[in-house]
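Protein Entry — a single chain follows
Next Lines — sequence and tokenised fold
***
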Amino acid sequence: MKFLLVFDFDHTIIDENSDTWIVKCAPERKLPNGLRNSYQPGHWTEYMGRVFVYLGDNGVKEDEMKRTMTTIPFTAGMIDLLGFIGENKELFDCIIVSDSNTVFIDWILKAADFRKVFDEVFTNPAAFSSTGYLTVQHFHAHHCAKCPKNLCKRKVLKEFLDKQLERGVSYTQIIYIGDGGNDLCPVMFLKKNDIAMPRQGYTLEKRISQLAQSLTPVQCSVLVWSSAIDIMSYLKLLIKE
């Protein structure tokens, strides 16, 4: 029997938001106010599309973007945790579900040699156009009112589990590691035996505790982490059992 580890990416695997980090490539490392103020709630992907057009218009090329992205620090303890998972892949399946994009995640994981730790990465598809501009698309369409228009992480997780079941793979336990408001929807899908691991002091932890106070707690167990070493300690206990 295997365990499934589900990771968010921004502020979970890396200690920053990859989408805001790319602004370091912009002239004077900032965006014009008009562009910054054009974001509308639930439409982050469209906003990032405009940011990438602005960078392209200002002559920012792929190699400069890549150099910038690969300087993002990993969260404390994360390099050790991913190394540990890599050494125990026979016990852990490992996926990323993220509102970042394929280009950024690929660059960062490959530069640190962690791409092979993850079985699949579910995120917004991105590519460079023939004119050298980075473009990004919605991951999928969905009908969940709680989630941003481009990505419902619960839907991704449910479809992944269904596909695995068809292949004859089921999991002893799902461990969901995240930090943001859009991680709540998949956490509410987890069952009694599963574990949600929200990052301490971030939105997901606050939302889970609000639910507990309003007497509609999540079904799964909750274990808060501040360093990825906390996650590794839990996984070591799991595989001893």
Summary: The first strand starts at residue 2 and ends at 7.
